[in-house]
Amino acid sequence: MAKAELKTKASEVSVADFIAAQGDERRREEAEVVDALHRRVTGLEPKMWGPSIIGYGSYDYKYDSGREGTMCRAGFSPRKAAMTLYLMGNYCDRQAEVDDLFARLGKHSVGKSCLYIKKLAEVDLGVLERLVAISWQVMNEKYPG
Fold first, then answer.
1. Domains: count for the chain
2. What is the DSSP string of the chain?
3. 41-51, pLDDT tens digit by residue?
4. In which domain, by residue range, is 84 found?
């Protein structure tokens, strides 16, 4: 099956311009912190994915249905309601460590593969960086090269 045309794909839009255009000063500052954290973990320069996701690296996936695509390996979006970080949802043999980290993170909520943080000041940035690092490691193991 051919790759479906995805709305969320890498673009040449400037990440710095996107962050600077955020209407809320606190969200702009938080985006800069989360960007620096991702750059440390991944060692990569980010790209914009779709209109609002700042992504690092990429991987190709294929669902059992045959649908295929390419997405960023790690990323976040400084959304109005909450800073949204995209993390690998299946930590396999690291689940106990991840559960402990989430318990120590601070005020947050989670979706299937999303971590939502309303205020970055309400979380432990060291714990957040470790969660991003584990997710990055798992992605690199699951989708090598």
1. 1
2. -PPP--SS-EE---HHHHHHT-SSHHHHHHHHHHHHHHHHHH----EEETTTEEEES-EEEE-TTS-EEEE-SEEEEE-SS-EEEE--S--GGGHHHHHHHHHHHBS-EE-SSEEEES-GGGB-HHHHHHHHHHHHHHHHHHS--
3. 999 999 999 99
4. 10-142
